[in-house]
Amino acid sequence: MHYTGTIWRPPYEAASLLLEATAGCTHHKCKFCTLYNDLPFHFRMSPFQYIESDLQEVKRSVKNSRQIDRVFLTGANPFVLSYDKLTAIAEQIHKHLPSVSSIGSFARITDITPKTDQELASLRALGYDGLTIGIETADDHALRFMDKGYTAADILTQCRRLDAAGIHYSFFYLVSIAGAQRGETSAKLTADLCNKLHPVRIGANMLTVYPDSALYTEIQHGRWQEAGELEKYKEIRTLLAHLHIPVIFAAMGASNAYQFCGKLPHDKHKLLSFLDEIIETASEQELQNYRKSVRHL
Length: 297
Description:
Order of helices and strands: EEEHEHEHHEHHEHEHHEEHH
Number of strands: 10
Radius of gyration: 19 Å
Structural class: alpha/beta
Helix content: 25-40%
Strand content: 15-25%
Shape: globular
């Protein structure tokens, strides 16, 4: 199999076949992100012959390859590829692994914009479903500062288009992306946005600042202040409390000292109580020590 650099996938894609379609990120400007700093380039599509040979390898060597029902395309945002390229990849997947019923990937909001409504519907028919989108927040102030390259209005517009096409999606929310004393604002704005959409799940990840990030430089120059660890849990609680849609809500990544998962609205009270206990009993110093121990996401 052809893999480049560190391969990232959401926790819930653990059972999916990981197929490299791209490497790196087309944007590569988010101030907090260091995930693709180990690559000597910003972005590239995998050669089509690599994709085809990887599928052939899986078909030859994996026992019960006929039981593989989902493929997750790796790279920061493979959904940026043109409709024609995504179509060609799907056709190869179905040719070599006919048991596959769905194809997922990471995606940026800006990856959706250039595709027509008909193209989105056609991609859904080809199996593209279950995109994971790191919206991070619906706070435009934070989105601008972090150079995400889109606004909250863009998130709403493009995800409504995914809803219309029948393409399901999950969100990652980045806790404390808005900085100290702005977490509750970020959480309320994001909950309000999500309540107008249909995400399958919302995953909360804690911001961890690394020295090789542009955000670290901003902090050194006094232009941004990181929220405290308990403040981050208060932010998660605010987000959860203001969500009024059926959705899986989780904090399962390594950035979270306390991990949890539940279905709203059924588990909402239980999750709120769990967060209240953390806020009331956890030590700020112990949580900071955990943050320092997370050497790489």
